Each structure stands twice: as C-alpha cells, then as structure tokens.
Amino acid sequence: MSDPLAAWRLGSEPYYQPQGDECDRFEAAWSRRLPLLLKGPTGCGKTRFIEHMAWRMGRPLVTVACNEDTTAGDLLGRWLLEDGATRWQDGPLALAARHGGICYLDEIVEARPDTVVAIHPLTDTRRMLPLDRASEVIRAHPDFMLVVSYNPGGSRELKPSTRQRFCGMRFGYPDAEDEAEILMREGGVDVEMASALVALGRRTRRLAGHGLEEGASTRMLVRAAQLLRQGMSARDACIAALVVPLTDEAALCDALMAAVDASF
Ligand code: ADP
Fold first, then answer.
1. What is the Å distance from ligand 1's center to 224 Cα?
2. What is the ipTM of this complex?
3. Is the pTM of this model over 0.80?
4. What is the pLDDT of residues 159-196, one digit of tens each?
5. HSE-up (13 A, CA, CB side) for residue 225
6. Which SMART domains does the record associate with it (predicted)?
7. What is the CB neighbour count within 10 angstroms for residue 5?
8. Which residues line ligand 1 (CB under 6 A)?
9. Cα–Cα–Cα angle for 29, 53, 182, rounded to 5 degrees
C-alpha cells in the first residue's frame, strides 16, 4: 500500500541552531506524545525547530499554516464527488492522526474558533478525533503528536480553555552568536557581515513597542543576507528585506533607515 504520509516526510536533516536545551525538552514531550504549544514571535525559528525535531524522531511533519479562512473542515476532511460516487478525503489533521505523523498547526490563533475546538479531543488522554461528517471517530495512531504555534505579540489571544490543554515551550530570537551563525549558514554571508546584520536586527528590536509592532525577525535577517549574496548593497538589501516590510509609517521608516545607515 502506498504511504499516505509520503508527501510529508522530510528528505534530509533541516538545519537548526539550538538556543538551549529545547531539543531535549521536545523529546520528553514526544516520549509521552504530549500536545505542545510553541510560543514566540514570528520568524524566530519555531517552524524550523519542529521540522528538525520531526526529522530526528523519524516522523512525517504535516504542516498547516492557519489563517482566518481555515475551517474545521479544512483540517478534518471532506466528501469528494468522483466518477459519480462520493469518497471521503482526510484533511491534514485526520491524516496525521490516522497514520502517525506530527501535525503542526502554525499560528493556530488565526483559525476560526470552530477549528480550534475541533482539535480539543486530540489533546486529552482519549486522543480521539471525531469526524462528524464522515460518521467516524479516529483513535490517534501511537506516533501521532499535535504541535501548535502561537505569537503572543499578535492581535489575537488563545483562549485559556485551549492553551491549558498544551505543554508550552517559549522561543525568542537566538542570541547574537547563534543568530550570526544562522545568517552565515542560511544566507551565505561572512562573519563580519553576519555580525553587522545581527547588530542591526537588535537595533530594530529595540524600536518594538515604540510604534513598531515587532523588530526584524531572524527570517528577515536571513533574507537580507541572501539578497546581499546576490550582489545587492547592504543598504538596498536591508531596505528590501527589513525596512519596507516592517512599516508603512514615514517616521518609523526614517528611524529604521537611521539604524541601517549606522550599521554599514
Ligand atoms: P517561525 O516559525 O518562528 O515564524 P521559522 O522557523 O520559519 O520562524 O524561521 C524563519 C527562518 O529563520 C528559517 O527559515 C531559518 O532560515 C531561520 N532560522 C531561525 N531560527 C533558526 C535556527 N534556530 N536555526 C536555523 N535557522 C533558523
């Protein structure tokens, strides 16, 4: 029989620079298949972490990027009409629960409330997933694990009735040395350039809360490094990867440009 999770298997080890003992803490949760909440700002490495851990655990990673249009049906599945007959097609959550994958719901808080409620039965000891529309209840595979991510700085909050069902791991931006290492590995820049970008990132993070919602993420710094590698000047790369995406306000734009000019 073909592997229903084949498309979700990771071919090679995703590079992940640990920030502390998070890999050990993940393994403890994994060994009991406890549902896990990864909390931290966008672009700080949560997705890369779970990709790396899924690879280490030898499990496929079924990822869903949640948004305001994500419904319970998108996660659970739907009936399809095929050659005049109807056929049930598992959604990503049902697929992972049935066949034993790690299901990662990225930015769970963005999904509609009925979606969030749909995952509740998988988070208690019964580990079940009712598929009302298919008149079926899936008992989760022993290798199924549910992981969700959440950015506490965002506009929406996760309800206590949901968050209390998870064990949590907090993520922040990597420390300077680790972040420079990531920029060298992912962006292909040398140590001097990586350190200058990291210093700029830190300057922008100090502006967070002073008009700017969040400073430059590690993801943004990686992109700046990648543009630099393509031959762009440091200034242009930072405008494209950091300044333009971070703000629409002229005053904040000036403050960010001043930070860029002070860095290069
Ligand atoms: P999040 O899921 O928190 O929004 P990601 O995991 O997608 O963020 O990280 C964004 C990018 O930043 C990754 O694609 C990777 O290039 C880089 N990155 C961030 N943290 C790390 C890390 N600890 N190790 C390796 N790469 C990282």
1. 14
2. 0.99
3. yes
4. 999 999 999 999 999 999 999 999 999 999 999 999 99
5. 29
6. AAA
7. 17
8. 15-17, 40, 42-48, 174, 182, 186, 218-219, 222
9. 130
